[in-house]
Amino acid sequence: MGQRIHFVIDPQGWCYMGLIIFVWLYNTIFIPKVILFPHYEEGNISVVAVLCYYFCSLFCIASLFRASVADPGKLPENPKIPITELERWELCNKCNMMRPKRSHHCSRCGHCVRRMDHHCPWINNCVGEDNHWLFLQLCFYTEILSSYTLILDFCHYYYFLPLKKENWDVFVFRHELALLRISAFMGLIILGGISRLFYTQLMGIFTDTTSIEKMSNCCEDISRPRKPWQQTFSEVFGTHWKILWFIPFRQRQPLRVPYHFADHV
Which percentage of the chain shows pLDDT scores above 90? Predict the structure, then answer.
């Protein structure tokens, strides 16, 4: 089942996402140029450190773009509902469409989303059943990349040996201190915010509840028996293979294909 492309026309969301891309682009350009490449050339760090930084950066931007354009689980206009499944559906009082329970109507996007967690302006998209795994990957790799950047900023001044060769004719090296201070400031802000968000998301999967259900506290299934954490994570990521939970370059296949996917297979 291929993943459908989904765009949300929201200028405010585009601004938020543009800010995230700017921070990613800033660190991806200046950190290697100021820290990684010069220290690698002088033998202070290995090529593994350079490659790991670029891999984290690549996985971070890939999960960002995929989460922002992936269909979060928008319901079709005329879903086919078997008689045996009617009790699991309800009528949305905003768009007057039938939807599975645990779905939610997003006022910003204007439609219902299956197992919607929340609408995230930073990816300009809803976080729902079909792209929740990408949003988790985005949180994870953003946290890793921010931590890695802060460690490099710290080591550059307090651990690595001073550079012997410096090209002071280049703008980057003449403003090295200011550039790295900006990088450290952005890293601290993003790390603090994303750590809290990532923790909330993980706890939601462990307890099998969405952010909307936690805030409303009115889900009738809130007292349902809890599933093992391996099962809830596997359902979110669409696979029991844990190594695949960390790879954004793949297609998610639901472990149990429900009937309302039938028109999109």
Answer: 50
Q: How far apart are CA 13 and CA 81, in angstroms?
A: 34
Q: Note whether residue 65 is domain-resident.
A: yes
Residue 117 lies in a domain: yes
Amino acid occupying residue 93: N
Q: Please name which of 98, 232, 137 lies closest in space to residue 240, comparing C-alpha atoms.
A: 232
Both structure tokens of 117: 């967690």
Q: Give the span between the Cα atoms of 109 and 46, in whole angstroms.
A: 46
CA dist., res. 210 & res. 200, Å (int)? 10
Q: Is residue 238 part of a domain?
A: yes
**Residues annotated as catalytic (active site), given as ranges:** 120
Q: In which element (H, E) is residue 151 found?
A: helix 132-158
**Could you give phi then psi for residue 86, rounded to 5 degrees?**
-60, -35
- The SS3 call for residue 127 is strand
Query: Beta 111-113 vs 104-106: how paired, if at all?
Result: antiparallel
CA atoms in the 13 A half-sphere facing the CB of 262: 8
Quote the number of domains for the chain. 1
Q: In this structure, is residue 1 part of a structural domain?
A: no
Q: Say how far apart CA 153 and CA 47 lie, in whole Å.
A: 18
Q: How far apart are CA 35 and CA 40, in angstroms?
A: 8
**Residue 248 confidence class, pLDDT cut points 50, 70, 90:** very high
208: DSSP letter: T
What are 70's strand-pairing partners?
5
Residue-averaged pLDDT of the chain: 85
Q: What is the token pair recorded at 256?
A: 């149990």
Q: How far apart are CA 155 and CA 149, in angstroms?
A: 10
Specify the pLDDT at position 223: 52
